[in-house]
Design a protein that fits this description.
This protein is an alpha/beta fold. The protein has 2 domains: 198 residues, 3-Layer(aba) Sandwich (Rossmann fold); 166 residues, 3-Layer(aba) Sandwich (Rossmann fold), CATH 3.40.50.2000. 39% of the residues lie in helices and 18% in strands. The protein contains 15 helices and 14 strands. α4 runs antiparallel to α5 and α11 packs across α14. The longest helix has 18 residues. The chain is globular, with a radius of gyration of 21 Å.
């Protein structure tokens, strides 16, 4: 980019983003808003059912047709390389930011050939994802290492949002990746959202209200939340469970939950309504073993609600003293809930909110801009030329 241009056009390309997707869309939205506020031009390219080109509060959003991935409940991917390459060429990005390592890894080579600085954002552990697909651990590690070496060679910078995600790059004896934690909306998600009337809809004052907030899909392991509830009930803990979200496993989960106090809300598009539900919960469950940064868990902490997270995921690193890590079994999750409930309520809620306050979107935006070679405090006209 020429130093005289007024701003950097940061083109971001991502898969597995829909109108109902949670953490990734939330992150893309807040980062886009931050780029705009810093004086730059974010453009987001994502898959959808049909072509679209819309102006959003977080910048321009282009949707390209992409097929649904079977069994994911509507997630799509960009597979038409030629069309995406034409769109990227027409956009003429000053910086390229990619959030996917499946069908989009070729974009790093495209950017390098045209002299466009590129960043790959690794939200997940590829080793963990491959293991979820039933690959033996040793094979999953070898495949992940090969793909990650290719990623390192294709992109100028790698950004990881957790040390958990960065570990598989560190073991390759590669240059250090940029570690940039994501943020949380501390205003929308706040303890003051708690509404006693809403709580009475699900639980009375003698009951323990648990909430699971995630897509009802295989990788999230929502059945562990239902099974943990059953364990708690058998142990005499008067717990009830609210399942927030939708997905391909909902019918099976409803059958599994028969006879248990489980409420399915479906997808909640209203962020304030979601915050109110998180704020009235006693504990939020995040049993997914390959959960990445876990924005839903962080949003629960911001509402003053502690979280029980799967110890195999990235969430223990994120929730810190605001919750408890447990092995991914119903009995371990149930025991972790009991341990949290043994803490005085005021103390556990204060610890949750305090932990969330360590994560802000301004710091995340600044970290991503630095990964792009843009100092956040500089005026856009001061940007160095692309190399």
């Amino acid at each position: 980019m020429s130093a005289g241009l007024p701003r950097a056009r940061i083109v971001r390309v991502a898969n597995f983003v829909t109108g109902r997707s949670g953490g990734l869309r939330t992150a893309l939205r807040h980062l886009g808003e931050g780029y705009l506020a810093a004086g730059h031009e974010p453009v987001l390219v994502i898959p959808g059912a049909r072509y679209g080109d819309t102006r959003r509060p977080w910048g321009r959003e282009i949707t390209l047709p992409g097929p649904e991935v079977p069994g994911t409940g509507g997630y799509r991917v960009l597979t038409d390389r030629r069309r995406l390459a034409r769109v990227l060429a027409d956009l003429a990005p000053d910086r390229l930011e990619v959030s996917d390592r499946s069908t989009l890894r070729w974009t790093g080579r495209w950017a390098r050939e045209l002299g466009v600085p590129s960043v790959m954002v690794s939200h997940e552990s590829l080793t963990g994802l491959l293991s979820q697909w039933r690959l033996p651990a040793a094979l999953a590690r070898r495949v992940a290492d090969r793909l990650n070496r290719e990623t390192l060679h294709r992109y100028d910078r790698i950004v990881c949002t957790t040390r958990w995600a960065a570990e598989e790059f560190a073991r390759l004896d590669a240059p250090p990746v940029d570690l940039v934690p994501l943020g949380v909306d501390l205003t929308t998600f706040h303890p003051r959202r708690a509404d006693p009337v809403l709580r009475e809809r699900y639980a009375d004052h003698t009951e323990v209200l648990l909430v699971h907030c995630a897509r009802l899909s295989v990788e999230k392991r929502p059945e562990l939340a239902v099974a943990a509830l059953a364990r708690l009930r058998r142990a005499g803990v008067p717990a009830v469970l609210v399942m927030v979200g939708d997905g391909p496993l909902r019918p099976a989960l409803a059958r599994r939950a028969a006879g248990l106090p489980v409420h399915f809300t479906g997808f909640l598009p209203d962020r304030a309504a979601l915050a109110a539900l998180l704020a009235i919960a006693d504990v939020v469950l995040a049993p997914g073993p390959v959960e990445t940064f876990g924005l839903a868990g962080l949003e629960a902490l911001a509402c003053g609600t502690p979280v029980v997270a799967n110890a195999a995921s990235a969430l223990p690193e994120v929730i810190g003293p605001g919750g408890v890590a447990a092995y991914g079994t119903p009995s371990a999750i149930a025991a972790a809930v009991v341990r949290l409930l043994e803490r005085p309520e005021a103390a556990r809620r204060a610890a949750a909110r305090g932990r969330a306050e360590e994560f802000g979107w301004p710091a995340a935006v600044a970290g991503f801009l630095r990964a792009h070679g843009i100092e956040p405090g500089h005026r856009p006209s001061d940007l160095p030329a692309a190399t």
